[in-house]
Amino acid sequence: MLSRRDFLATGATAAAGLALGPDSVSGVPAPVAHLRARPLARPVVVASSNGLRGVKVAYDQIVAGTDTLDAIIAGVNIQELDPEDQSVGLGGLPNEDGVVQLDASCMHGPTKRAGAVGCLEDIATPSLVAKAIMDYTDHIMLVGADARRFAIRMGFTPQNLLTEKSRQDWLRWKSRLNPNDFWLDHDDDVRIRFSTGTINMNAVNANGDLSSVTTTSGMAWKVPGRVGDSPIIGAGQYCDNAVGAAGSTGRGESNIMTCGAFLCVEFMRQGLSPEQAVLRTMERVVATTQSKLMGPNGRPHVDLQFYAVSRDGRFAGGSLYEGPGYAVCDDQGPRVAPCVYLFKASERPRRG
Ligand code: SD4
Description:
Blueprint: H1 4-9, H2 12-15, H3 22-25, H4 33-36, E1 44-48, H5 52-63, H6 68-80, E2 102-108, E3 113-120, H7 126-136, E4 141-143, H8 144-153, H9 164-175, E5 199-204, E6 210-216, E7 237-240, E8 244-250, H10 252-258, H11 260-269, H12 274-287, E9 304-310, E10 315-321, E11 325-330, E12 333-338, E13 340-343
Parallel strand pairs: 3-4, 10-13
Antiparallel strand pairs: 1-5, 1-11, 2-3, 2-6, 5-6, 7-8, 8-9, 9-10, 11-12
The structure holds N-hydroxy-L-asparagine (SD4).
């Protein structure tokens, strides 16, 4: 066995050629040759479909020279501050106590830094709080009341995030919870239809510099204190400036079980295209799904999407089931493109 010093001294690194670099010495797989060979990228921004306005804002900022993370955070701020998007920031659907609790995380590829916040109350832009944690502390993640205190000390203004629309939805849900409780039944249909979801956004600029961000109010009616995948580095989003960036929306618990965003980037490191990487990640999600979440046809009840961009500007969105699209903006302008998927919509099992 060669020691690390012996290995470097013998010049074995150089002898091994392109596939081996300093990363190989530290045990981290080196990016595949085709990614290294192309230092310049086609700028592109990809996001969940609710990010259609945001990808355009982020793309325009990136081509004007703004840092990729600042640009995509400006993109997701649009949804965070939009009271009509009930899955993120202001107007997000609350937990079972009627309290809005937000999660977010971000990564900055060029400087290899990350920030995250979980279970944050009263601050509409958790993506910016995650970035403040990254910029101003030597930590990565703050949660709960102390994260709120940190944000206020950093100059964020607390506000009531529960809009009247989301409060009415919560009351409807509450009224149907238990036939023996003291809540009166509500006439309306209790099912809340989401036209939008959590927002994940990933970008690469012309230098091949990458960033990623995910922000959410999490699952509606969740148990207070529940933290989903969005603020977990490697699950909700992940970015490696040598390879690519990826992120997710959908059932967070399933994503946490697969470290989905990290896995997606690792698949790209091995040479898979973003499209292949999101599909392979989805296959892993199915393989790690517990039996109580499986239908009789062997298909999971859960829904999950991944979005990925490679360092050289290729991109994809993927979904477990046929249907959802994803937002993308490049020199062709902003648009919603169809996700690649594992299963047809008709294969989705109905819940008993
Ligand atoms: C969570 N992944 O908290 C989020 C929820 C989501 O579309 O993405 N909804 O589990």
